[in-house]
Structure formats: structure tokens, C-alpha cells
Amino acid sequence: xxxxxxxxxxxxxxxxxxxxxxxxxxxxxxxxxxxxxxxxxxxxxxxxxxxxxxxxxxxxxxxxxxxxxxxxxxxxxxxxxxxxxxxxxxxxxxxxxxxxxxxxxxxxxxxxxxxxxxxxxxxxxxxxxxxxxxxxxxxxxxxxxxxxxxxxxxxxxxxxxxxxxxxxxxxxxxxxxxxxxxx
Amino acid sequence: xxxxxxxxxxxxxxxxxxxxxxxxxxxxxxxxxxxxxxxxxxxxxxxxxxxxxxxxxxxxxxxxxxxxxxxxxxxxxxxxxxxxxxxxxxxxxxxxxxxxxxxxxxxxxxxxxxxxxxxxxxxxxxxxxxxxxxxxxxxxxxxxxxxxxxxxxxxxxxxxxxxxxxxxxxxxxxxxxxxxxxxxxxxxxxxxxxxxxxxxxxxxxxxxxxxxxxxxxxxxxxxxxxxxxxxxxxxxxxxxxxxxxxxxxxxxxxxxxxxxxxxxxxxxxxxxxxxxxxxxxxxxxxxxxxxxxxxxxxxxxxxxxxxxxxxxxxxxxxxxxxxxxxxxxxxxxxxxxxxxxxxxxxxxxxxxxxxxxxxxxxxxxxxxxxxxxxxxxxxxxxxxxxxxxxxxxxxxxxxxxxxxxxxxxxxxxxxxxxxxxxxxxxxxxxxxxxxxxxxxxxxxxxxxxxxxxxxxxxxxxxxxxxxxxxxxxxxxxxxxxxxxxxxxxxxxxxxxxxxxxxxxxxxxxxxxxxxxxxxxxxxxxxxxxxxxxxxxxxxxxxxxxxxxxxxxxxxxxxxxxxxxxx
Lengths: 183, 566
Prior knowledge:
The complex is a heterodimer of chains A (183) and B (566). Chain A has 183 residues and is mainly α.
């Protein structure tokens, strides 16, 4: 596939979803690696999703952050096995968007947090200028971060409370201050 | 046809039970315990209690996708994956839809598992007796035919099966919902108690009681007690709930009288013209595709409502060109389910300082309160419905927006408020035109005919649904709920997994297939005790009724055998 064809198929994939500058970023990033393909997640994108996940769910005194529980690889597995191609492409679009203002991986931690925070408020603040597909892509990343983290061993047992075998049911107990939710 | 002809003697038993689900398990147990050498035929693989529950002790993080079904799984289970109990942890208990096709003349979800234990492994475990309001309904309003039994015929058999199965619940003394022989009731949570008190105060026609469920709240017959994991449909290593695998089949096995043959697709019941009885069944081994015949004095069909109809319709002979015992031409007809997926939910404030411990595998129940007396009679529909539901406190505070440590912490706290919701289970009238018929053009993976399923909800159900929705909102309002949201998701028939009625009981052989003992009018040594015998659907979850009728039919069959009437 030559570059022009690649650009054309990108445009078909996203419709009008991507701005010219985004396409340009994609074009620059067009290497032979898996990561160059929209909707496919190689090491670079996996790493980037792990960073985003860790920004959403960072390490706190009681429990590790999302990166430490392997959220990047989990997201890729889930995207590949449980999501549609359409959603995978939207996730790619969100990653491309976050990379638009410069390479996410070379940005400072503060810049990365600012970038994710900005996108998060645009998506949930229902910023009309934001492309819907891209917004969906970010929501999938966030949904998988929360689901993957809180159903992980550390998430369920350290960030939350978890018992595989409760052994009994008590329907009405006092909630102690600061008590965590059941996983 | 590859017919494996062995010596008849080798393939001859006293009784054959077709199917090992909730009713087949009971037939196996009762017949074996009464001393009959019994062959239990199951079309799927074997599932041994505990040993064959591969996911039962897995934590969420030990499942590849933390519980989510993959695209590939959904592709193979396009219909099954619509079920609430389907997931990565239970997918092995649901049929592959590609290998087990049927034809939806109208939308119908046929949700099933082909393995030893059938759906008794994944069932919802709710258990409610029918009452004479149900048994008399057809005779009173003229839909369907009269049940050939009344509550007094069945009451001792309800008690009999309850003492073995173990049904937890609270006695309420209601005529429309007779009390079972109960194990200790599970506890309501704070909000459910609060709502129950409000409902009692505001309504004189309805109450909230704890769900009646086949859970061993105390140990019973070597099973349980329930450990409140709420992972039931994976199979329970504690035997905390009733299933064929944990309860009836081990009891049958213990007698030494049971032979269990998995991978056995019964293709027909063999009719012997001379004796006017069934001589046995023909099976296809699903692995070798080889046909074998088995013979017995009596045959119990427990292959499920649609499975049993399929077998009877496929059992054609000169005497029964339309299917075995089908002179009435009722086999396959009068297909019913419960109609559900309509209800309301809302927030209950004021319990922020209360929480719970353990995962109760059960909810609350609002017994039927419509059309049970002159005072409760409706002019817009006949019959009635009950509600199931419960209160819960979720996880996480605040909205979906936000990132970082504070956002994380907010998601680790119990939700600000409790929510309370109820959904209804309504009676579906028996309509002759709601039916399943054989399709000889579209074959399944075994080259066998498939079923055309043509079933719908009609005016009475649709009128009832309006009341179900409104009454749910009324209850939520009485409970003081905030942000009340009502819904009607209108799932198609079959989705409630209470399909029944295709081989109905009745008093008249011209309009029904079975007599009051689940015995075929026309072929006296064939008994049908799965959901297909149901003359009306009532609105209660039906499994307990299948159990009671099965035990009663086994008792009758063995007595008749002893009198040499069969």
C-alpha cells in the first residue's frame, strides 16, 4: 500500500473523524511496525495505554496504580478479543489525538497528565467540537482501565475489599468511616 | 442408518429417563429409589458435581477476560450470550448456537445447556408453589383447558420435594402463594426492610417477602450451607443450591440402579403397535453418530419443553403419523413463557451509614396481587404477575469524569445512595397458535430436523405490562424512592427461560396430551414431566412445580407398574 492509498483508507476508516493534522501525525508515524496500523496495538500503543491508565488510576498509599497491574496488556487483550474493529479504530483515534501535540511518550509526566485531563473533561463535559468517535475511543480506554484495575487482584483486594467466599450474609451492618466498597 | 443391534436384554431397563435437568434428575432419583433399573439418557456431555465446575473457584483476575465473553464466544453463542447468566465463567454450560440451530418464525430466545444437569446448573433457583387460583384459572376464564389437578393433589408432593431440595423462605400465609416447607429465610438488607415496611403501611393488597430460593441456608442432605458467594451458575462446590448434579443424580447413583449415558440424543420413542405402548427409545450417539435402541417398561420424557415436543413430533408411526400420542394435535402447541423485563427502580436516601456483608444470591418478592379476588379484579386483563427485585449499594461515588488519586479514591467508596428496583414476571396465556413445529428442510449439525418456533405475546400480556410498569412505579413511590425510572425492555418470548406448555395436561384426550398424572392419554407407559406438561403458565417461577409433578408421576407410574397396568 503506498502512502496515498494509506491516507485514503484512513479517511474511509474515520470518515471525517480525523483532522488533517491528525492524519499528518499518522503519516509521520507510518513505520512498518504494528503500531502504524489503525486498530492494531503494538508495543508502543500498549505502553501508551498503560501510561494513560496510570494517569487515570495512579498509585496511592494503599494500592498500586493501573500500570503496575499490567493495564496496558489487559486493554490490548480486551480490545482484540472483546471489542469491535470499529471500537479499536476509535481507540486508535484517541491515542493519535493525544499524540497530536507532540509525542506523548516524550512529554513530561505533568504534560501527559494535562493532556489526559484535558481530553477527559472534553469527553465527559460533552465538548461539541470533539469528534464523537474519538470520544468513544477515550471512553473505552477509561472503561477498560476501571474495569481491569478493580477486577485485578491488587485492585480488588487492596483498593477495594474482596472475599471469594464470604461464608455468611449480613444485610444491615454499620459502614465504618473510610470503609472501602466491596469489589 | 447405522443401527447397532445388540441383544435386547443388554439394552433393556425397567425405566428410561430422557434428560437429566431439573425434572429428569428427579425422575431418576424417584424411579431408582423405588427399585427400578433406570437408564438416564443425556444428549450432552457429563458434568460431575464439583469436579466439572472448572471456573467455580476462580477470582475475577484469574479469568482471561475477567469475566467478559469474547467476540468468538459470542459468535458461537449468538443467542445464548443474550442471557443474564452467560459470561466467560459460565459459557461452557450453554449450547453452541451454530451447532444447535432453530428457526425463529417470530423472535424467540431458546436458552439452554446440553450436559448432565441441564439448566439445573445455571437456573435462577427461585421456587414458588402454585395455588388453586392458578389451577382453576383456565376453567374460570376459558383460556386453554382445565388443569386435571388441583392444589390439594399437589400439596403433599410440593412438601415432599421441598424437604429434599431445600427451599429457603419466609411463610406469609397467602392464598395465592402457598408457603413451602421452608429452610430459614435469607435476610433482607436495611433498605429492603425499610421498603417492605412502607409497602405494608401503604397498600393493603401487597407485601414484600424475601425471595424463596433453592438455597441450603442450613446444611441439608449433606449439601451446603450456602456460602453467599453468588457465583451459583458456575456450579457450587459447596452444594449451596439445588441442582441435579449436586442432589438428585447422586441420590439416584447411590441406589446402584442408575445407568447414566451422556452423548445420547434421543431421536424417537419407539411405539409398539401390538401392545399399544412404547417399547423404548432410539438414540443417536452424538460422538459416533451410531444409532442404538434401548427398551423399558416405562419412559419418562424430561428433555425440556421444546426438546420433548421435538422428540414426540419426530416419533412417527402408522398409528401416530403426527407424532407419538398426538391424536389431539396439541403437541408443540400452547407454547408459553413468562413475560418480563418491565419494572422500575430508584434511589433510596437515608441509609448512607449502612452496608452489607456477603453476596446474597437471592432478592425480594412481591407476590401476585391482581385478579386474585373480586376486589382485585381487573377489567383490562386476566391473570397476574409478581415482582422480583432488591436493594443494593453499588461501588463508586461521583460521575464518570475525572482522573488521578482523588478520582480513584472516589471509585473505591460505596456509592452515595442505595438503589431499589423491581421487575415483573407475568403470566402468558396458552394460545394454540403459539407453537413449535418440525422443520425437515433445515437440519442441525447431526442431520436432524430443527424446530420452527412461532410464539408471541398478545393483547392480554401487553395490557398486563402496562399495569406491571405503573404498579412498579407506585411501589417505588410508596417506598419514598427518588429518581424513579421505569422501563419496558420487551424481551421476546423464551428470554425468561420458563418455556412450557407444548405437551399439555388435561381432562379430555381430544384436547390434551397428558392426564393428571403426566401420563400420555394415548400411550400409557410414557410420562412427560418437564415444563411441557404445564396447562397454564401461572406467574410463579415454575421449576418447583416440575419437581413436584415429577415425583408424583413417578409414584403413580411405579404403583401402576406393580398393579401390572403398564
